[in-house]
Amino acid sequence: MSAPADVITLPSPPRTARRRAIRLGDIPIVPAAILIIIALVAIFADQLAPHDPEVGKLTARFKPPFWQSGGSTQYLLGTDQLGRDVLSRLIFGARVSMVVGIMAVIVAGVIGTALGILSGYLRGWVDQVIMRITDTWLALPALTFAIFLAAIVGPSMWNIVIILGVTYWTRYARVIRGEVLSLREREFVQLAIVAGCSKWTIMTRHILPNVINSATVLGSLMLGVVIITEATLSFLGVGVPPPQPAWGLMLSDGKQGLMVGYWWLTVFPGCCIMLMVLSANLLGDWLRVKLDPQLRQL
Predict the structure, then answer these.
(1) 137 contacts 146 by C-beta, under 8 angstroms
(2) Which residues are CB-contacts of 32 (< 8 A; sequence separation ≥ 6)?
């Protein structure tokens, strides 16, 4: 039967146009821009900061932002209880949050991905040992465990990186193991076994490239969690040690001043933490959709 005359078939858009729409229209511009700006500020903190973030003037204590009465353009966002410039401390605090967040995610990802691949592919007693350790780790409250470790090893930026990596590797191990259990039954893995490839070769050349996407997505989603944890540790005094500027430490120093009207000591670092974590979560969720074949087809 011929099609009715009133039915009009519209031509499908060119493939290049569809790809362009996916690349440009779906990217969360604002979260990506915020993270890029924070990263650039962290990289060029030495050139951007108008004052030394660790040295202040007691004669300039508790100066408000420049738009308030008593403020000065010399200290655009005011000063703290020691006369240190809040803007300069925010700028250098971005470097601390970026370094700690990214490095801790990498450490956790390397440990968790390696153990997840070993557990999922080798199975047997190796799987049992790794998964029982993972279950024990997951049963511990992450923040409490991180505080316990930080109290033992002492406050230091690089100690916090190691502590957060050791605390959050279990998230990777669980997810990667589940994917490897499925991949090891696929035809390309079975063909590699028949071809005589060693277990190490199969895990590194055939399985690892197929779980990189999942590890990347999980890392982007974990970035916000790691930053919040680092800020919490610094707020409690077991994270980045003073006088090194860190957003969590700035919140801790300014909590008493908030009660007497020095709102800028807590509002500005709190807003920086919120923007960075929210942007990382939104970008991570977008990345999860883009790298998941099932969700990408929707």
Answers:
(1) no
(2) 279, 283
What tens digit of pLDDT does each residue of 257-286 get?
777 788 889 999 999 999 999 999 888 888
pLDDT at residue 12, as a whole number = 39
- Assigned token pair, 194: 């028949």
Q: Give the pLDDT of residue 257.
A: 74
Phi first, then psi: give them for residue 238, nearest 5 degrees.
Answer: -120, 15
Angle between helix 264-291 and helix 29-43 axes, rounded to 10 deg:
120
In the 3-class helix/strand/coil scheme, how is the chain assigned residue by residue? CCCCCCCCCCCCCCHHHHHHHHHHHCCCHHHHHHHHHHHHHHHCHHHHCCCCCCCCCHHHCCCCCCCCCCCECCECCCECCCCCEHHHHHHHHHHHHHHHHHHHHHHHHHHHHHHHHHHHHHCHHHHHHHHHHHHHHHHCCHHHHHHHHHHHHCCCHHHHHHHHHHHHHHHHHHHHHHHHHHHCCCHHHHHHHHCCCCHHHHHHHHHHHHHHHHHHHHHHHHHHHHHHHHHHHHHHCCCCCCCCCCHHHHHHHHHHHHCCCCCHHHHHHHHHHHHHHHHHHHHHHHHHHHHCHHHHCC
Structure tokens at 287: 């990345």
Q: What is the pTM of this model?
A: 0.83
Residue identified by tokens 């050349």 is: 205
Residue 249 exposed, middle or buried by CB count within 10 Å (0-12, 13-18, 19+):
buried
pLDDT at position 113 is: 93
pLDDT in tens, 163-211: 999 999 998 999 999 999 888 888 888 888 888 888 888 888 889 988 9
Residues in the chain: 298
pLDDT band at 21 (very low <50, low <70, confident <90, very high): very low
